[in-house]
Amino acid sequence: MNVTQHRQQLTALHNKGYFNYGGQGPLPEAALEAIFNSYRHIQNLGPFSHGVGDWVAQELQATREVIAAEVQVPSSSITLTENVSMGCNIALWGIPWKAGDHILLSDCEHPGIIAAAQEIGRRFGVSLSTCPVLETLNEGNPVEAIASRVQPNTKLVIISHLLWNTGQVLPQKEIVEQVRSQNPDTQILVDAAQSVGSLPLNLTDDGVDFYAFTGHKWWCGPEGLGGLYVRPEALETLNPTYIGWRGILTTTTAQPKGWKADSRRYEVATSAYPLLAGLREAISFHQSWGTAQQRYDQICKLSAILWDKLGQVPQVHRLRTTPPESGLVSFQLESGQHEQLVSALEAENLMVRTILNPNCVRACVHYFTEVGEIEGLVEAIGHFCKLTV
């Protein structure tokens, strides 16, 4: 299927230049229809009935299996959540902390994750420190920057696979290996907000302990549905914190009998189940165009075009000095008028966003972005720069 045909399913792209996939992707029509049909199916069966209960169980398992195949892990290792933050919180609060433990974060983590780690430090007497990953964007070794700061008491390292602010892809497998060589007991939590649906993944091979992701960004699924991968070896040491009927075993007298044997133990209770079909359809939409590797290659090809054309605007400073390795392209204006640029572009139906650290503008391209869109965006940025000299 060519890109023009493919894009017909994405009505959100009609008559606009969309470059905010790192915030939320557009929902394919087939996914929207699947969600509506699922809601209708529930009503036809009877909203609370044996029929709906059996259907929900099948939907949950089918979705775990589709996700697991995409990231190359057993379906039993997938917990279905609402979003990345929920997945990270399951891991963060399920670890048995004690006073004197240490958390190491990169200096490029999202404020939501930083806040959760800080609260753990406050409640349990856990120390926090950061490692300078941001400065390795163009030179330096992020693996060394992280591994060299692992301490004997480091219980958890928190990183992002694909940095949300600069678009840098961290060598995840090498980081895991080097961290464990420093301290075999240290676990690794990955914020995968930007990597799932964007990078080709093999989490089993990479060896991370916890990998939290969402379906609504690069997978272009519905907001409110994501997941957490828990490495099987980490399962027994991670305690459920949010607890409900979906995660527990019960006896014939409805008394709790312990946790489910796999990662379902971290799921809680009633969710918006029709979203499950929507996410599966969104993933199928991408698979119909090409493999994960083919999609990633196209993303890199298009982001290189955007990066190159931005370099032709004198008032623009690109954060990367070499072509991007992801679909995120961040840049700064000599004038510093980033918020004004975003507002001006949106008035022309061109959607980008600002980032606070580092202070910049971020534009995202997907594999179905058209070169004409990129040219239109850069032309509008150049025009804005000329007006604000």
TrEMBL record:
Keywords: Aminotransferase, Pyridoxal phosphate, Transferase. It comes from the Bacteria. Its cofactor is pyridoxal 5'-phosphate. The keyword NADP does not apply. It holds the Pfam family Aminotran_5. SUPFAM superfamilies: PLP-dependent transferases. Gene3D superfamilies: Aspartate Aminotransferase, domain 1, Type I PLP-dependent aspartate aminotransferase-like (Major domain). One of its GO terms (molecular function) is transaminase activity. Residues 18-361 form the Aminotransferase class V domain. Belongs to the class-V pyridoxal-phosphate-dependent aminotransferase family. This is Aminotransferase class V-fold PLP-dependent enzyme. It comes from Roseofilum halophilum BLCC-M91. The lineage of its organism: Bacteria, Bacillati, Cyanobacteriota, Cyanophyceae, Desertifilales.
